[in-house]
Design a protein that fits this description.
With about 500 residues, this protein is mostly helical. Helices cover about 55% and strands about 0% of the residues. The chain has 26 helices and 2 strands. It has a two-stranded antiparallel ribbon. A hairpin with a 5-residue loop joins strand 1 and strand 2. The radius of gyration is 45 Å and the shape is elongated. The termini are far apart.
Length: about 500
């Protein structure tokens, strides 16, 4: 309903707010003053003056906080106006919402329900980008800063650290106070409190003083070393170890930096420089082997890559390499050499025998690796040669540093045929285990001969039912059962 001119004049004359007229100057300065007044009124809107009877009004003259004011203010935040040069413009690419299209009503504000009938929370409505209200950030209450500025003693500070409460350590300025704080944290047996104090000491003390004081505090020193390790402050940790005289630990820490070097030639040079570090005897031997192995791998890799590219070596054509040998472990390198360079003379770097002698690989490790490599290639003659040993009379006998049960498992995993498996199943000393393995791998001759040696007629007759009818195994069993010269025990 439109108001008459007289009604409007009566309204503005009776209002507690000054009237707005278009005769006023519309420059930037006047609009800025109006904006500042509006921002200043926020304090009164929040009730800071404590006067509950003071009625608050908006720029439109309606009481602030009323339902009509809330609806109009929210609707105004969604409309794009042309007379807002003094405020930063907010992107309003979404079309203006009409009362009939906005889906916003008093029930949606207070009941969380839109016009469409779908349930919607009040926070979801205000969370919508098209309906979001922008309000100034209010200062946190002083009670939240009370914990940080309290005048706490060292004991109380450590207790608050244990409880996970915020506390400022800046008041502890003297060295004596800082060390007291550290000792109390250690006595409390709380790792988080110890670490928090150590971080503060690290920031406020020079390295020399900090290292000197930590030397006599074993628990704090251990926590500090762990902290530096976790945060990867390698340089400071190295300085700490050297200052404490722990030269071997410092050498090991410096040696571990090789992991960050990706280029194999640079890594080899770095390992060579580590040979002069003051390692313990066992560690020095390990570093030397590491350097020697990488140097050898670089030589082998270059030669094999060239041979594979030229296509002149048959084994590289039949079994292409799946990965580079660089930075592989020692046993993997030995397996690689047993697979691709088994017959090479001892004087070459890639010879398995040369690798075994250089790195002092035990007989059992070498035997197991060579057996797996040659079985993978189905080189059964090479496998058989590994077991052959001559006694002082010149007789050949099969001998193995592994149990023959383990040998059978390795051969079976590499799909060895039955005639190969039965040679080694028959060498298992325990009769029951030998029969079990023979039945598992269908080595019938081993089972039949074992029952014959045991002179157990009943077991042999029972096993006759398990073999194929008309097979050579069945005929062999029949011959044994009909042999009158065998003295059966049952």
């Amino acid at each position: 309903m439109m108001k008459s001119k007289a009604d409007e004049e009566d309204y503005w004359n009776s209002s507690k707010c000054n009237a707005f007229t278009f005769d006023d100057t519309d420059d930037e300065f006047s609009r800025l003053k109006e904006s500042k007044k509006a921002v200043s009124s926020i304090g009164t809107l929040m009730g800071e003056d404590g006067e509950d009877d003071w009625e608050k009004f908006s720029w439109s003259g309606e009481p602030v906080g009323s339902i009509s004011w809330s609806v109009k203010e929210m609707a105004a935040s969604n409309q794009k106006t042309d007379r807002e040069p003094a405020f930063p413009k907010i992107s309003t690419e979404t079309p203006p919402l009409n009362k009939s299209q906005s889906g916003l009503s008093l029930s949606s504000l207070f009941k969380g329900k839109g016009k469409g009938g779908n349930l919607q929370s009040f926070s979801d409505i205000l969370g919508d980008s098209s309906l979001r209200l922008y309000t100034p950030e209010l200062r946190k209450p002083k009670s939240e800063y009370k914990d940080l500025v309290g005048d706490w003693s060292a004991e109380e500070t450590v207790q608050r650290l244990q409880q996970g409460k915020g506390v400022s350590l800046e008041k502890f300025r003297s060295l004596q106070d800082k060390l007291l704080l550290l000792d109390l944290a250690v006595a409390a047996h709380d790792g988080n409190a110890i670490t928090a104090v150590l971080i503060y000491l690290k920031r406020t003390l020079c390295k020399e003083v900090l290292f000197r004081e930590l030397e006599s505090r074993t628990t704090a020193l251990r926590h500090f070393i762990h902290y530096l390790t976790e945060t990867r402050e390698q340089r400071l940790l190295l300085e700490l170890l050297r200052a404490l005289g722990r030269t071997e630990d410092a050498a090991l820490l410096q040696y571990k930096e090789y992991k960050s070097i990706t280029d194999e030639n640079k890594r080899r040079d770095f390992l060579k420089s580590c040979l002069s570090l003051p390692f313990a005897a066992e560690d020095a031997a390990h570093v030397l082997d590491h350097y020697t192995l990488l140097e050898r791998q670089i030589i082998i890799e270059a030669a094999d890559r060239k041979a594979e590219r030229e296509g002149k070596v048959e084994i590289f054509q039949k079994f292409p390499r799946k990965a580079s040998i660089l930075n592989m472990p020692l046993i993997t390198t030995l397996y690689y050499c047993c697979f691709y360079h088994y017959t090479e003379p001892e004087g070459t770097f890639s010879s398995p025998v040369n690798v075994r002698q250089t790195f002092k690989i035990s007989e059992k490790q070498y035997f197991t690796t060579a057996l797996a490599a040659r079985a993978k290639l189905k080189a059964w003659l090479d496998v058989d040669a590994l077991f052959n040993s001559r006694n002082w009379l010149g007789f050949t006998k099969k001998k193995s540093p592994l149990s023959f049960q383990r040998v059978v498992d390795i051969l079976q995993k590499n799909s060895a045929p039955t005639h190969v498996l039965q040679d080694y199943v028959g060498l298992v000393s325990d009769a029951e285990l030998r029969i079990s393995l023979a039945q598992k791998h269908k080595c019938h001759d081993i089972v039949i001969n074992t029952y014959r040696d045991m002179k157990d007629r009943q077991l042999l007759a029972q096993y006759r039912k398990k073999v194929e009818q008309g097979s050579p195994e069945e005929r062999k069993i029949d011959e044994l059962l009909n042999n009158s010269q065998i003295r059966w025990k049952n």
